Amino acid sequence: MNDDELPKVPTFRRGYRFQFEPAQGCHVLLYPEGMIKLNESAALILEQVDGQQSVGQLTDALAERFPEAPGLRQDVMEFLEVARGRHWIELR
Amino acid sequence: MDGTGSSFAKPGYEPGPPLWLLAELTYRCPLQCPYCSNPLDFAKHHDELSTAEWIEVFRQARALGAAQLGFSGGEPLVRQDLAELIGAARGLGYYTNLITSGIGLTEARIASFAEAGLDHIQISFQAADEEVNNLLAGSRKAFAQKLAMARAVKAQGYPMVLNFVTHRHNIDDIDRIIALCVELEADFVELATCQFYGWAELNRAGLLPTRAQLERAERITQQWRERLAARNHPCKLIFVTPDYYEERPKACMNGWGNLFLDITPDGTALPCHSARQLPVAFPNVREHSIEHIWRHSLGFNHFRGDDWMPEPCRSCDEKERDFGGCRCQAFMLTGDASNADPVCSKSAHHGVILAARQEAETAAQPLDQLQYRNERASRLIAKA
Ligand code: SF4
Ligand code: SF4
Fold it and tell me: Is the Cβ–Cβ distance between B280 and B299 less than 8 Å?
């Protein structure tokens, strides 16, 4: 994902639902007949996907929250790229 | 223990949550697929849980961690309370899946389900060819109805899975099947080679494809995958091979009573949808809580862990990978549900699998000799 995409707004693909599952103690992504358990950093990023914030805004928000984390911007961009590649999210 | 009976929990064995809840709402169905996974004697079981009983099942299973809920059957659309059940399940936080033949669906119902919060619809087809489809389904109007409903499902914005059960009489058409699914904008396509339970087991000689048929179908599917990926097309093709052509069994249900919980129309709880045929007593939600059923019942603990395994599984270093395969298949093909699944080449009964493969080459049954799934046939079978 490159800087041209910073103004784009990520949304979940229709049919993909992100939620916390108390019994599993983690966030999951639910989709037709399937479920992916998310690790903490994936959950933190996907939590920001609200159909409002752009890639740039969401990255800024995370960078502000975790000022100590090195290479955070790049990690977020890479993760969003993977999520898009797997068709979990779409960029508008 | 929750006080509804004694505990058969295995010491040191802690089952995970029943992540997948399958609600088989009814055995009623207008179609007659000769590979239906419903029990052969389904006509004996007319009793169905009420709306309130189903909702209570959903609530209890959700509390134990169930996240995916499949509405299935039979044909779940024959339940007039389906929208209400969907609404209740969605309100509890489930991801709700409707698994239907499309018969009985209308645009108005699709819309009312969306309003209730339905997340996804899966429509099953019998074939890409209208005539073969209708012959297999036992209905002259089925194919046109399915096409119309698949289009309506997408028009209303749902994600859609199309499911084709493949077998020797339709698998050679795989290219057309996939093309049809892509044209209908399916998000996922399940190309599920018949698994031999229920009616499919009865009709095995008429359904099992040859190895050559299977390999060709896999090759064509792979070519389609590459073409779709090159176009960054989101449609995903899932190809399920029949284990009859494997040398090791499938890790059935990911382990007995491990993540799958099936509730049949009358409330009997099963660890998989064909387990009803096993000589094991299974609990009913009318008598026990889901918590008791999942953690403490004899039925759900019977094949947990590995202390029940005889040889060759007992001393096998692969037992944690496949759990000895499928209990139902072991029972159907060897008469003892504890045996190794005969798909395994280490099983003393592997010969029955080899014989079935041979039969597929030389003595297969034509389409018109299949035993179709219907009330009359089921009553005859139940009597015998
Ligand atoms: S497999 Fe066919 S006959 Fe069986 S429930 Fe499904 S649509 Fe009905
Ligand atoms: S012997 Fe049993 S455990 Fe070993 S591979 Fe075969 S089925 Fe699996």
Answer: yes
Most B-contacting residue of A30, A88, A91 (CB-CB within 10 A), to test interface: A30
Amino acid identity of residue A68, one-letter, is E
A55-65 and A40-47 helices, crossing angle to 10°:
130
Question: Tokens 């403490």 belong to which residue?
Answer: B296
Q: Residue B76 in contact with residue B82, Cβ under 8 Å? A: yes
Length of chain B in terms of residues written = 384
How far apart (Å, rounded) are the C-alpha atoms in residues B278 and B25?
A: 21
Q: What is the pLDDT of residues A26-57, one digit of tens each?
A: 999 999 989 999 999 999 999 999 999 999 99
Q: Which atom of ligand 2 is nearest the CA belonging to B312?
A: 1
Q: CA–CA distance from B350 to each of A1, B261, B361 (Å)?
A: 52, 29, 17
> Nearest-5° angle of CA A49, CA A50, CA A52?
110
Strands B236-240 and B188-193, sheet pairing = parallel
- ipTM of this complex prediction, to 2 decimal places: 0.90
Q: Is B222 helix (H, G, I), strand (E, B) or coil?
A: helix
| Nearest atom within ligand 1 for CA of residue B38 | 4
pLDDT digits (tens, 9 = 90+) for B7-41: 888 877 888 899 999 999 999 988 888 788 887 87
The whole-angstrom separation of Cα B316 and Cα B208 is 29
3-state class (DSSP) for residue A90: strand
Strand partners, B193: B166
- Nearest Cα of chain A lies from the Cα of B53 at a distance, in angstroms, of 23
B161 touches chain A (CB under 8 A): yes
Greatest extent of chain B over all pairs of C-alpha atoms, in Å: 58
User: Which residue matches tokens 């382990």?
Assistant: B255
Query: Residue B206 — φ and ψ, nearest 5°?
Result: -95, 0
C-alpha–C-alpha distance, residues B235 and B161, integer Å = 9
Q: What pTM value is reported for the model?
A: 0.91
| Phi then psi dihedrals of residue B283, to 5 deg | -75, 160
Distance CA B266, CA B244 (A): 32
Token pair 């028009």: residue = B155
Do residues B259 and B251 touch, judged by C-beta distance below 8 A?
Answer: no
Per DSSP, the three-state class of A21 is strand
In the structure, which protein residues have their CB atom closer than 6 angstroms to any atom of ligand 2?
Answer: B 248-249, 312-313, 316, 318-319, 322, 324-325, 340-341, 344, 346
